[in-house]
Fold this protein.
Amino acid sequence: MHPILFRIPLPNRPIQIWWICLVVALLALPFALLALRNKRKDEAWFPGLVAVAAIGAAVAFRGSEPFQRHDLPIYSYGVMLGLSLVVGWYLTLGLSKRIGLPEEIMANCYVVTAVSALVGARLLYVVTNPEEFTKAGTFSMKLLMMPEAGCGGLVAYGGFLGGFIGSWAYLRAQGIKLMPWTDVAIPSLAAGLFITRIGCYLFGCDFGKRLPDTAPAFLKKLGTFPEGSPAYKLFRGQGGSLPVHPTQIYESLAGLLLLILVLRRRKQQTFRGEIFLLFVFFYGVARFAIEILRGDPERNEYGPLLGEHLLLPGCFLLFAIGFTFAYARDIKNKGLRYGLLAVAFAIPVLLYVKMAPASFEAPRSIQLSTSQIIALFTALLATWFHRIFAERAEVQPRQAMDLGLPKALSPKKKKKAKPILGAGAVGTAAVTTPTTEADAASEDVSDEDEDEDADSDEVAETAAEVVEPKPEAKADDVKKPGNDSGSAPVEG
């Protein structure tokens, strides 16, 4: 494990926090002013907001104590987080362009979503670990400056919820529907899980419970963390931590599988929002299961104390019902569908058998963690909306795949002319060629109907001109062979 990849030397002198805030404001302000000068308010508001926030932070920290460090550590988690944002940028904008969403607005929305996700991830960490922020003199520093964001202090589900709210607010202001955006943004979220959880593993946070002695040797090796790591502090061993579940690797692999799943499902998508709801459900199931194996204390538990042999199998039974209610209906292969249904309902039964206490033995009572509660709630909510949207798509398939863009932002349609094939041909007709892979499904239905009517009128007028009947020739006007006109003879 490598919690710190490298260190950047710093000048050996005290540094005021408000200096840093002021530099951020000075960097953001020119971008806002330039956008306003070019009359592009949609691009000016974000750098303007950053500048205002940085100035406010500078004022707040004007009287704070300076800090002095010899170097700046670059944490592996922070690097992986930054890499996931870069990968997500290219993946999201590429998919947006492919289905015909406006690139500039989607680029701005990505930035808003990323910032909102970071803020949401930090806020949920604060809510679940309030004891870290109640010490005198540390609350404002930790909360506002977020110094631990490069090495932890973030909760994934807080990032998902924060990003969802931020993108909804921005797209609502632009008059654009949310669901098409969520479908193109979700693959980047799955890729982010795959990448950032590797950063968690390198740092040593978000580890699991103690591995049993019968665990495979390779798993024990993966789950042994060095001295000084968060896992070592809780599970001390000789020369490192005791072997624990490498839950970071488990969730990273889950992110990779979810990325493959959502990219494959895009080819059979039937309504906008389907990819988003698919991810929400299956990530909820995966995260709920991984949380059972988590051993780090920064997760806080809520809700009633219930026997684990009832609570956990009961939750997985709800997942199985949700899968039957919505997602199993999309599997066309009957053998695969019934096989997955059997597995879904076998899991809660096997959990109950394994966890049920022996006779006259008191059951072990547990509570659900914050992430488990959110996972269960969001997965069942996704199931409900998936069923509603899928039923609407069966009745109105074209409307279900409509992007819902304002007319000013709708993708332009290229037109080319068909050549006249012969004397009896209808004529030249304007033919629409889609500019994106989903134009035929996403174009506005009313506009399409108007275009079809206009094309029909044009075809009819052209046909009338080309196939206009000529007066019947008289017998005296018929040229005989060898006449001066050179026309072909007409047979009687």
Q: What stands out?
A: The radius of gyration is 31 Å.
